Amino acid sequence: MERSWVIGDCWLGCGRTGVRVLWLGPVQWDGYTAPFMSCASCLARLMAQARAYWLSRLRIAAGA
After folding, report:
1. What is the pLDDT of residues 19-31, one digit of tens each?
2. Burial class for 44, CB neighbours closer than 10 Å (0-12, 13-18, 19+)
3. What's the whole-model pTM score?
């Protein structure tokens, strides 16, 4: 899947504006939708957190 970086605002944590961001998916609340965007550094932090979670789940499943 090809990902398109655009100039926009990071919604993931740093709150920077006018930076290169990647669309992660829609945010939906009370019937409204908004684009959920992340800059590269916030995305890297999110992926590291997700990777740590996945690895911990694999260890639990393996009985370690």
Report:
1. 999 999 999 999 9
2. exposed
3. 0.77
Per residue in 33-48, pLDDT (tens digit) is 999 999 999 999 999 9
Q: Which bin fits 55, alpha (ψ -120 to 50), beta or left (φ > 0)?
A: alpha
Domain interval for residue 57: 5-62
Beta bridge partners of 39: 21
Question: How many domains are there within the chain?
Answer: 1
